[in-house]
Amino acid sequence: MKGEEKMKRIVRKCFMAFLALFITLSFVSTHGIMVNAVEEGGLVDIAKHCDVTVPQNEGAISNMFDGNTQTIWSPSSTAGWPATVTFKLPADNTKPVEKIVIRFKIENSSQENWNMDVKLGYYVNSVTDELIAKDVKGHMLKNAFEFEFDEPINISHALVTMANPKNGDSQAGFWPQIAEMEIYVADDDQESNLSNLASNAVITSCGNGAGNASNLVDGNYSSLYVFYNGGMSTINGEAWVQADLGRDMSISSLEIAFEKLASDTNNFGFTYSIYGMKTTDTDWTKLVASATANRTDNSVNEHLLGVDGATVKYSKFKIVIESIASTGGDPWPAIAEFKIFGKEEAVQDPDNLAWQKPTHTNTNNVTSSKITDGNVASSWSGAYYPGYVDIDLEENYNISDIEVYLPTSGY
Length: 411
Description:
Helix content is about 5%, strand content about 35%. It contains 1 helix and 23 strands. The strands form 5 sheets. Strands 12, 13, 15, 16, 17, 18, 19 and 21 form an 8-stranded antiparallel beta sheet that branches. The N and C termini lie far apart (about 95 Å).
């Protein structure tokens, strides 16, 4: 009896295993292969967070991120050849891309030999000089198109171009299509350790006080910093904005945002560069060269500075708007938002006897601690004259020098 019971249990287990396999195969045959969003090895697929631009049929974009290879994006007609789909990576992503996978759809054995030319390109820092990662002639649609970077790289856009549809060696009449797009980055918590440091920066510009500088760093993409009272053609020299952190800090990435409109009848097109400077530098270092933006689908750009997610040291940043193309006259220069993502680091100024010592002022005393915080980019301002500041050194010292730093942008 015990032998019979044991055999029955084995038969039941085998039957249940067969049934589970049958259900799985049936599901795949009717619903397509289900693709996991997270791969083994600590990689995370961020493709669904991208801003996607397609030549036609925007309503089918989500099909590229639903995990099902039987639902696809495809244009509305065969006139869509060649087709390029652009994936703009999320502005807050600071992680380098390690791997890209593109999957296509075939429905039955008659499509086994369907193939097309597939080219995978990418942009770095939103500069529209396309770099080619992989270019395959006659890629078989039944196979995934995979590319793994030799070294993970910080990219801002991925571009997939499809052309020349064939069935074997003969021309075919199927449409361009993508079933699944996967863009993998390392799964770590690096972003959670970063802060937007721009809110504490001193903002200056070529406009000598024009506009409301706080709009540049207030976190509000709807408020504009119009930093020059006049059109671009009236500016003598560069159209520039500078953000001064007051000291070298560890910076990972920058974000710049321009005005965002649902549609732009004046067709604004911005070209800009961004420069950085350390406290020991005498010249600016170009960090971003002639990047482009507009006021509709490309109004926000992220620029990654470090390699493999590393940080770099800078104390100042300068944005130079090189040109603004427009069909509506002479545009005034304006920026909606500028963010500096980096690590919050406590100021160390131990040789300064006043560092972190108690302060008292006759007005605005709540911000008087900025006078002794060691950061020349932060400042206290009184409400009226006369004004005074008391600093309690807490001990008696023989003083050799006293240095007073005034705000570089006025107050």
